[in-house]
Amino acid sequence: MGKLDGRVSLITGTAGGQGLSHAVRLTIAGADVIAVDLCEPIASVPFPRATPEILAQIVKVIDALGRGWKSYSGRRASARGTTFRWRACSSMELMST
Length: 97
Description:
Elements: E1 8-12, H1 17-28, E2 32-37, H2 52-64, E3 69-73, E4 94-96
Parallel strand pairs: 1-2, 1-4, 2-3
InterPro entries: NAD(P)-bd_dom_sf
Organism: Frankia alni (strain DSM 45986 / CECT 9034 / ACN14a)
Protein name: Dehydrogenase (Oxidoreductase, short-chain dehydrogenase/reductase family)
């Protein structure tokens, strides 16, 4: 039984860097994960961004660890977007950005 069994974690930037690291560690600890990443180029960011394919691979890792997950990518996943409803995550207990 993991330390975070029964907890739900919303992680932004899941397709790389710290977001990826947090997703893996929290999954190993037993949390279910809501994985969110823009997965699009950003003019002010000078390095390549993650892709939806990379996010899909991360979801496979989470799935292989036997945890629940949901992933969102693109503008629909943006906090500034109009279609993603953050209130749908009302059972969320952990958050990493």
